[in-house]
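Lab meeting, action items carried over

1. Structure of the two-component assembly. Owner: GW. Status: complete.
Input record:
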Amino acid sequence: MSGHVAPKKKVSDMKRLWGMAIDLDKCTGCGACQVACSQENNMPIFDDDSDLPKRVVFLDLMKVTNDNDRDAKFGDVKVAYLPKMCMQCAGNDPDDPQPPCVSVCPVVATDVGDDGVVSQIWSRCIGCRYCQASCPYEARVFNWWKPRYEGSFKEGLNPDVSIASRGTVVKCTFCSHIWKRERDRLIAKGVTDINAVQYTPACVAACPTGAMVFGDLKDPQSPVYEEKLKRDPRAVRLVHSIDALRDTNPAEYERRTKIKNYPNPKVWYLTSDQWLREKLSGFKKS
Amino acid sequence: MKNVIEWIKNEWNSYSKNMRIALAVLFGLVALFGIFAIQILFWGLGYTDMNNNFAMGIWIIGDLGLVALGGGAFFTGFFLYILRVDKLEPLINSTVLLGFMCYLFTFILLVFDIGQPLRAWFGYSYPNWGPGLMPQSMLTEVVWCLTFYFLVLCVELIPIPLKHKIVDKIPFFHYFGHYLHKLMWIMAAVGTFLSFFHQGSLGGGMWGVLYAKPGWFRPHYFFLAIVAATAGGTSFMMLIPKIAGRIMKKEVAPKESFMTLARISGVMFVFYLIFRGYDLYSLFNTYAPLADRSYADILGGYYGWWVVIGELLLCLVPIVIFNVKKLREQEKLHFAGLVSGVAAISLSKVEAVLHGFSVPNFSWKGFTAYNPTVQEWFIFLGSLACMTLIYMAFARFFPLFPHLEKGGHGEGEATA
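Predicted assembly:
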């Protein structure tokens, strides 16, 4: 007997699951990624941007030092620079995988697409900042002031990215507008397969040392193939120490995943420095 | 117009010197509220001390506190109309008014707090309802439940001004108020149902569901907030009439009404303390280790240990006083119990908001602090001043305390 059973869930044609890997051993902390991101995404420029907690940037270059920084002698001080943007969390609840920020939004201004990118609709956002409260990576920023562009910066604004109003939350979207642009370009050439399109976000394109790589987490040919990253001893995810339990203590790993939905970020960091891996992954003292 | 000015002058001169000073301070706060409200609404939240790490501040603490304390209205209404504890009748008008104002000013503070006040209606037009019947976002649930309960409180409040001796003479208003009053048990039941949800969601659930944040995540937080509201709210519903009685030098409600509510509040505080104990135990043993923190790490910072210990100590005061007959019948101790109870629940909201934001997200960062700006303070204090003035106006012009009408205003029967 042949019959057609309608699928319970909408099956997406999308095969892509975008992710990023950042090799911190290669990162010099030059800040080119942050400048490129700000320029690409029309970040406002104020006369005085020294109020760091209120600054509007999608990609923040964080300075990480070892614990004994204050007392360390010359040569013992360890410093790393961490390009930190939205981790595009997947959540790991098998029944309802949700990034921490998406389920809390009261007006559906943010959503996660089937390409894994967490979107934000500037014009829908009411500015309640509940998503900011929920984000463990401080990746979401709020327009505390009306966005301003001094002098000739206004002429260099990117027409593909809308400027958010004052009083709305904005975030990194892995430069998904570039992907849309690439799709349009290929469609014009007659390529209609969405999965044939590749793209590179502005921060990755700007990195002079090749420390940042971007691609499809599900593609074995991709530099960020997730199964490979999971087995890489240099790989670590930000404040996600549960990863270490997967191999060392599978029972504890299982128990914890049942208690808590971990954010399950799609950005991986690579480093050979043990102290840095411990710092990044969680709060265990080295 | 001349008559109105004359009436205001006479009214002002009829008050004592202390009352006139108090009124001047309150009106001053309301004026500053207006000035800073314009600044915030027109030029944005840049003038606050909130930032991308400390995304919410004193106004959200105010919201949480007002809803929890205003929650005493639903609990008192539940006991009076559903469980038929008639001794609470003399307090119910004041209770309904307090609940109404707490919810009204929760909305007002929320409007200031959101970055786009003109889009506030999006909560109704684009609710994050999720796939099932239950709302997905706790804030969606809060918006809808608060709105419905506020409407219920409006219906509960209308009969009070309709009982004014001038309005009551008009037959339509007399019968309208009378039949609304008859419906009150339905309103109380609906209010109890609604209030249970948003007490839980705004007070605790909103924070407890933030699964990636170690200062907040615990699933039972929703239920803890309901118990907190029943305990602190009932104390609040006694505290304000008590203060009013002291100022008016009248017995605004019979002593047995206060004693009945004090017993209820005392029992709820016992439940709250036990639940809060479990909450801290599970935080230390389950949820802090999940985020690789020790409990010392989690409760460090500027709003950690001292707030929690202060809250627990303050909780003990109403527990001891309200549950021992000899103690609760002593006027001063009863008052101390009320103040401590309200302070304990308010402090728990300070801890929920400030401490949750203060906990560092990254291992290389420390606890953060927040210092409200003058705009935040005056909008917050101005809201409280507005509430105080509305309450005073109702006490002065409407039958807020029916006991006074029955007992010939109880002149000189000061409870203090």
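2. GW to write a short summary for the group page. Key points so far: Residues 18-281 of chain A form a domain with the Alpha-Beta Plaits fold (CATH 3.30.70.20). Chain A touches chain B through 57 residues (CB under 8 Å).
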